Give the backbone structure.
Amino acid sequence: MNVTENRRILLIDDTPAIHDDFRKILVSHGSSADLDEIEAALFGAKQQAAPVRFELDSAYQGEEGWNMLRASLEAGLPYAMAFVDMRMPPGWDGVETIERLWQTDPRLQIVICTAYSDYSWEEVLERLDVGDRLLVLKKPFDAIEVCQLANTLTAKWQLTRQAELKLAGLEEAVRRRTVQLDQANEALQADIVERKRAEQETMNAYRRIADILEFLPDATFVVDAQHKVIAWNRAIEVMTGVKKVEILNQGEFAYAIPFYGVRRKILIDMLEEDQQVLDSEYPSLRREGRTLIAEARVMLAGELRYVWSSATPLYNMQGDVVGGIQSLRDITDLRRIEQEKTMLEAQLHHSSMMESLMTQLSHDLKTPLTPLFALLPMVRKKVADPSLEKMLDICQSSVNQIQGLSSKALDLVRLSCRETRLQPLPVQLTSAVESGISSCAALFLQRGITCVNAVDQSIVVQAAAEQLNLLFDNLLSNAARYGAANGSVRISAELEPGTGAVVVSVQDDGIGLKPGQSAQIFEEFFKTDVARHDLGTQGLGLAICKRIVLNHKGRIWAESAGIGQGTTVRFTLKISKTPMEKHPAKGISHEQ
Amino acid sequence: MLNKNLVVIGVSTGGPFTLKELFSELPPLNAAFVIVLHITPEMDYRIAQGLDAVASMPVALAVHGEHLKAGNIYMAPGGFHLKLDGNQKILLCEGERVNYVQPAVDVTMQSVTKSISGKVIGIVLTGMGKDGAEGIRHIKKIGGITIAQDQKSSTIYGMPKAAAQTGAVDLVLPPRKIAEKLIELLR
Amino acid sequence: MSNKIMIVDDNEYVRASVEIICESVQMDLTSAACGEECLAHLESGFRGVILMDIMMPEMDGWDTIREIVSKGLYNGNIIVMLTGMGEPDAKMDGVQEYVTDYMTKPFGPDQLIESLQYYLTLLNVTSGTDA
């Protein structure tokens, strides 16, 4: 049904005559002409082509009317209004009927027709929630009153309905809009969450990078495009003593201060310089791709240090320079070691040169020595004059000294020569001792010194026999020279537990050593007599001994209780692992 | 009577003097001494005679086919290698130089065989080169006693050093001590 | 009885020293300043004890000896090396039997005389009958 045109009216009255009256007024066509005129005159409307006419349904009891209302709703043809009589015995009365009607269709406009004042308006209002849905028509009523009521109330019903629909429509639109907004909102929320997550990721990434930077072993700092310090890691804090808090966000070359004491350009600033400028003003800079590398001398903590440094620009995704990063490394120690190495190499070279020189010299000395050696004794023999004899003796001593020096120096060089490899063999220790004793026999005799060989026959060492003999020669001639006259020299040997070595001792009871001399005596040309006039010795003997012991990878040292209390020289040799063949020749036992 | 003890001595430059020194210390001993000195045929008898003059035992050039007798000193003649047959009989052989020399000490020493009844002693004295080193190794292997001269007393320490470095040398001594040792061993 | 000594050395003082020493014991000294002179003397008939230096320019001691041997001039001589070289090098391989002794410089006169006298004795031995 067209909402604009609901003309259905329900009349509920127990008096059939009322129904007829109403029908005549509202529905009948016949006698409506003058009514139309009256209508037109009342409502000011022009005579319409089709006069307004209503549909009227009748019910004679309240309940009946209520049923018809229900049916009408189910059919989708609701009544716009109803006229309801106040009294309709035996059934419901008007108020009760209206109650029911409104329960079912609250939109129904109702006119209550009442002849009596059974109920006052107040009482009606009490019983019903009237709103603006109820009008009263008092009997007897006019046709005009009825018409007015029918027109206005149906129109009102229609308007109300339209408003409702419109409202519903609006509400629906609003609801739909609300849903859209909600969805949009959700999407926005999700977007926000996502963005937050991405931000967090980036933060984490930066944090990781910052951590890495922070704990890089190399001192590192980062500047932004304005050369303000944006990172200053732990290592550079340690290197410079400047903490992050003091330097972060500082610009104006603040990062130069820990190194140079003043604000100035450093390597990281060179990144922006023109290559030509760099080449001309800073020729020591090296470039590897985009990185600049340089070494510098800087003051750190008051000390001069050598620092190696590299600086690289930082780029964003678009390829613009957004800052720079510089790493530094303290290479002072490395430098120092390099310098030491160079020095040692120079020393080594020098030593080699000295060795060659010494060897050459020793050889060359032999030539002039030969006639001296050969002829001095001859002259001496021809001379009878004691003063001349004395002169010649002095000359002879000198010549002997020269020869001794030259020969021992050559020995020392030969023993120290790096090319010759020792070829040690098992050697019976005591035989080397014997050899030494016999070569110094004359000197021992001259000074009345007794020499005791207490070295056990069973001790066999791993050594080069000729060097071992030379070792004992030198040690024993020393002992003979510095041992107490008419005293004794004792040679003994003890196994050193756990090392596979034997400690050999040569002990004299002679002039002894001053404290502190015990290391000195092994130095070349050292002599205990400060003026070094003693021509009988060259001061090389113990140096030779030391070289021999070192060649055999042993240790040598001297002990003395003090001046006048004798000296013991001790050294170690490796015990031979190869047992010498059991031989009757060895040992003192005779063959049966 | 068959000789029991055998002493073979190898020596070269500095030999005459060293042998003089050694043998002037030795009394007659119960052994046959075979000396191999690097020498020429024209010099060999001179050295032998020179030594004979100072030694307490007779010195003569070894003769091919001769049998060794205790208490005698035999010198290998120049121009031949000397080999011993059964440690008793002298065999002179011609042949290539060994170790650049002739007579070669190695040849003589290596011809010595293990002795059942007596001592075998090999000695290497002063000399240039390394003749005698292998000979010493051999003497040691057959159970003999080996001696090399020490560096200090050697005119040239070449041969004794080479011998010592084989690791097969029992004693390293100067001539006087070698003499003492021989007396001790051969009494 | 030969008492002839030859000194072969490129150093004049060495030669002079040996000469003085030899004269003092009535030994007859011939001097040669190099290997060639030595050979010349030998070819002229010198026989005796030759004191030979090793380190000489042009022809060293070893080469000289080899020349002497190859020219058949060795017999009747005793060669003693007289040299500043501590130990001979490998160049001596093959001439061992021709080198009877080896003395290092510097040497004392007595030491030299003793050796020379002994070697002269050896040279003066006649083959066969001497006791």
User: Anything to note?
Assistant: Chain C touches chain A at residues 11, 13-14, 16-18, 20-21, 24, 84, 86, 105-110, 112 (CB under 8 Å). Chain C has a mean pLDDT of 88. The longest strand of chain C covers residues 78-83.
